[in-house]
Amino acid sequence: QAPDSFPPLRNEAAVRVLRGRMKGIQGHCNSCYMDVALFSLFSCTSVLDSMLFKPFPLCDRNVQSILRDEIVHPLRKTGFVRAGSVMHLREQLTEKGQCSSFTNAEKDPEEFLNLIMHQILGIEPLLKLQSGGQKEQDCYCYQIFMDKQEDLVVPDVQQLVERSFLSSDLKLVEIPSCFIIQMPRFGKEYKMFSKIIPSLELDITDLLLDSPRECCVCGDVATLECS
């Protein structure tokens, strides 16, 4: 365990600490969905560090301390988290979430995020979405849904998010403090894309509801928008 606080890894430090054998979060007993979510949320960014320290209204301090001291701090300090630490968290999630399969079955990452953020830590939803002018919906992450498109062979995240929002007629009601995006996945037998290029920056200008945007014809503020 690492009792001290460690900042997220950046640049050369991230490469030095995280590259090589026996690095990352050790998988065990269908833990891949949780391993990859935890690594993505905490290894190289501090956006969600409030989950580790802040006493939220519904916050379970035991789960919070396991997450902080047994997973995030060792990951940032040594680049490695043993499977037993993740299992300790899974056992607590099973106990708190009234779901007996968190310790042995593969879950959807969204199910894990909803449980730990909403039911256990009591964090407010990170995203506000609106579809086709209907009522706003709150959520913690956005999963990309889209049909197979032949012109996208090796897409980047920017393209996938834009096309997914377009096909679902979705808009962001406001700029999110944290935008967690789940890539399309279809199990071992079929994958829509063999590779997806990470977009190091994400332009959400055209995804925002009622946001002033530039007309692509004259350059002035646009008054009409077509899909």
Radius of gyration: 19 Å
CATH superfamily of the largest domain: Cysteine proteinases
List unreliable stretches of 5+ residues.
Answer: none
Q: For this structure, what is the CATH class of the largest domain?
A: Alpha Beta
Q: What percentage of the residues does DSSP assign to strands (E)?
A: 5-15%
Would you count the extended β strands for me?
7
Strand order of the largest sheet: 4-3-6
Structure annotation, total helices: 7
CATH architecture of the largest domain: Alpha-Beta Complex
CATH topology of the largest domain, by name, is: Cathepsin B, Chain A
Mean pLDDT: 89
Number of domains: 2
| Range of helix content | 25-40%
Structural class of the secondary elements? Answer: mainly alpha
Shape: globular
Q: Biggest sheet, in brief?
A: 3 strands, antiparallel
Outline the structure in words.
- The mean pLDDT is 89.
- The protein has two domains: 110 residues, Cathepsin B, Chain A; 96 residues, no CATH class.
- α4 runs antiparallel to α5.
- The strands form three sheets. It has a three-stranded antiparallel β-sheet.
- The protein starts with 10 loop residues before the first helix and ends in a 45-residue tail after the last strand.
- Helices cover 35% and strands 8% of the residues.
- It has 227 residues and is mainly α.
- One of its GO terms (cellular component) is spindle.
- Keywords: Cytoplasm, Hydrolase, Microtubule.
- GO terms for molecular function: cysteine-type deubiquitinase activity.
- InterPro entries: Papain-like_cys_pep_sf, Peptidase_C19_UCH, USP_CS.
